[in-house]
Write a structure and sequence with these properties.
Keywords: Membrane, Transmembrane, Transmembrane helix. The protein has about 140 residues and is mainly α. It is built from 5 helices and no strands. It has a domain of about 90 residues. The protein is elongated.
């Protein structure tokens, strides 16, 4: 069986189809470039959810301050086995001092983050209130 070939299309139809395909391709390319632009997406996300970013940074800093200072080396383990009681107390004092310094640093970083984030939060609240006041304001009715 011989199949009939599709009818020949005019040159104008082909040009119109190519132009349509190019428009669709450029729209898809633009969408892909926007999706692949990670820095722009992060900036928009940070602007939209600044409070969440600052809060999670504070929580993460608090959790990191609870992690012990580090593992002991073989020398430290053997030295602790042979050490006397006052050496053990000195090691505990070092750990306490290290934790207190970490807590102070995390607290200072949290304060700086809140100080820097306060204008952003105030701007977001102001914009939200303005948007809601415009939406609820009675306008002229036809």
């Amino acid at each position: 069986m011989v199949e009939n070939p599709p009818p020949a299309r005019s040159q104008e139809d082909l040009i119109a189809e190519i132009a349509l395909n190019r428009q669709e391709l450029s729209a898809h390319r633009l969408g892909m470039s926007r999706a692949a632009n990670v820095t722009d997406r992060l900036q928009r996300s940070f602007h939209d959810h600044a409070g969440l970013f600052f809060g999670s940074a504070i929580v993460l800093g608090a959790l990191l301050s609870l992690i012990p200072a580090g593992t002991r080396s073989r020398r430290e383990k053997s030295a602790l086995k042979r050490a006397e009681a006052w050496e053990d107390e000195a090691l505990h004092e070092k750990k306490k001092q290290s934790r207190s310094i970490t807590t102070i640093v995390v607290g200072l970083l949290g304060k700086v983050a809140l100080d820097l984030g306060k204008p952003v939060v105030l701007k977001m609240v102001r914009e939200h209130l303005e948007k809601n006041s415009r939406a609820s304001a009675p306008g002229p009715r036809p």
